Amino acid sequence: MSHVLEPLARESFSEEDLATHLGSLDEAKPATVTALGDVWHMRNEMDASSILENFDPVEDGPYISATYEVYEVGRDGIPEAQHTNNGDEEGEVLEASTVWETLREVNSGGASVGRMTILQEPSPVMLGAAHMTMKRHFDMDELFQHLASTTGNKGKTRAYMNRAYETEPLKQRTFFFVFKYYTVVGEGLKPAPWQAYDSRPPDRRSPDHIDITECSAVLALSLGGKPKKTVKSRVRRRGVAMQQGVIYDTFAPWHLLSIQCFPDDEHSMRSEESKRPFYNGPYAFLDSLGVEYRDAIKRYLKLNEMITKLITPPNHFMFDARLRDKLLFEDKDFTYSRRYFWAYNTLGVINDGIKSMRAAYIDTFTKDFWAGKHATLWPHPEPDTLEGGAYAGRMEVLRQELEAAMRDLQEVYDKNERTRTEIRSLREQLFSGSSVKESRRAIEQGDNIKILTSVSMIFLPLTFVTVSPPLLQPTPTH
């Protein structure tokens, strides 16, 4: 069975390295500046002794739920935890120095062939540390551009996997998914400052309000070593030279980076007891991709449940005439029209996101890919051999899991559409009832005007109701 043989390069970083790196980011990309926040703005005021302690999360701050996990994978494929404390204990606030002590050392034992770094609700200093420690393996500005950008594909998941023809070697060796969708903010939690959020103080929240925020994640893989072979693009265009790209070894030493910004405490933490072997970097990526999709499904189902509850009348409406009238006739504040409009269109936006999430997977991982015969995406060196067949069999397990997630996503999509149909029905009933009420009011007002006119004719002064005198006759001429 093919597996990774070459170890990861050993790396070690100091606080001085971190301070120097952050101080050098004067020309940082806008999204990097956004992601790093105060760490970037104060980069020239910090030194090695203060860079970590100045940015510890506080109990009422936006990064109180920050967690992380780091695993190194040996030649047997078994991930071994490197973090001793991830801040996931109830009431515990994760200190920046705790994360740094793990991120700063890579393959210190010399036997690891892969490394998985997972940052959840990361604080700016955690992102700053990742920006430095991962810069040899990823274009971190590119990843931050997709993670923290406030423009672009809002609410849409995208796959950036066809990288062989990128012009920069760093991009040619990296592959990533960007997840963009929506979630319900967890109790007592806050989204990152750059995430869209309809924030309302508790005393101003109406029964119609649901704390929804835009959320995002980047799952990225970097393959090490030198390019395995060159490839030429099959696309031919007049006046344009044929593109030449490179492919990195599918079984090269690897780094996996997962940055998750979901302020809801709904993450799937990896279990210390899970001993599924990661045969190579692509296998670890696909396993993590399945985790991301399953977490997204949980969030989508919770959103559907809360929106359905918002628009569904309570059962006791059958016995409450006043409640029935409220549901049938619109009030002066257009309460139910506003509620139905928001719920109907929110579910439409969510379903657009689900379509993009399914398309990102289906369009990327084709039949050739799963057979290990894709031209540029992680091809097996000998797919038609017994060893290639054994590897494809192990990948088939991940394929089944991911395709089950695609079916579950389709079920969530269909469930949202059924809820939208129900909302349309409720909206039409409301419109019908309110229209009848307004028509009756108009008729009643018309009858009142007739009565008022008749009474006025009786009581108006006589001079206003008598017939005007005839016109004066012209003087006869002689």
TrEMBL record:
Residues 392-429 form a coiled coil. It comes from Lasiosphaeria hispida. GO terms for molecular function: metal ion transmembrane transporter activity. Keywords: Coiled coil. GO terms for cellular component: membrane. Pfam families: CorA. This is Uncharacterized protein.
